C-alpha cells in the first residue's frame, strides 16, 4: 500500500540519487532546497496532496512525485495547487531536461 514519503526519506533518497549522477548532470544541479519544500498538488480534482520541491530556478521546479516514484519538472503556479507536471524518471533525466 502506498504511503506518502516524508522529508527525511525524501532527503535520503535524493542523496542516493545524486551519487548516481554523471558529472554533467551533477554540474547542472542547482542549490537544493533544505529543508525540502512541500508543494500542494492536485492529482485528482478536489484532492490535494504534497510533492517535494528538491530544487528551483525561478518559476521552474524540480520535484519528486512519490506516487510515480519519478522526478518531474513543473512551473510553480502563482496561486493554488500544482496541477500540471511532467515526469522524467530518474534524477539525471529530469535535471538534463530542466536545466541542461
Describe what this molecule looks like in 3D.
The protein is of the alpha+beta class. It has one domain. It is globular.
Brief summary:
By secondary structure, the chain is α+β, with helices and mostly antiparallel strands. The chain contains three helices and five strands.
Low-confidence segments, ≥5 residues, pLDDT <50? Answer: none
Mind telling me the C-alpha Rg?
Answer: 13 Å
Q: Strand order, biggest sheet?
A: 1-2-3-4-5
Order of helices and strands: HHEEEEEH
Total individual domains: 1
- How is the biggest beta sheet arranged? 5 strands, antiparallel
Structural classification: alpha+beta
Helix content: 25-40%
Beta-strand proportion: 35-45%
| Number of beta-strand segments | 5
Number of helices: 3
Average pLDDT rating: 90
Shape: globular
| Distance, first to last CA | 35 Å
Topology:
Layout: H1 7-19, H2 23-28, E1 32-44, E2 47-57, E3 60-65, E4 70-75, E5 86-89, H3 91-99
Antiparallel strand pairs: 1-2, 2-3, 3-4, 4-5
Keywords:
100 residues; alpha+beta; five-stranded antiparallel sheet
Amino acid at each position: 500500500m502506498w504511503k506518502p514519503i516524508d522529508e527525511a526519506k525524501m532527503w535520503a533518497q535524493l542523496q542516493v540519487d545524486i551519487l548516481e549522477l554523471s558529472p554533467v548532470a551533477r554540474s547542472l544541479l542547482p542549490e537544493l532546497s533544505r529543508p525540502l519544500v512541500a508543494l500542494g498538488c492536485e492529482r485528482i480534482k478536489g484532492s490535494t496532496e504534497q510533492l517535494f520541491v528538491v530544487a528551483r530556478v525561478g518559476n521552474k521546479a524540480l520535484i519528486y512525485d512519490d506516487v510515480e516514484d519519478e522526478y518531474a519538472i513543473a512551473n510553480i503556479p502563482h496561486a493554488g495547487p500544482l496541477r500540471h507536471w511532467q515526469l522524467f524518471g530518474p534524477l539525471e533525466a529530469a535535471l538534463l531536461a530542466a536545466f541542461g
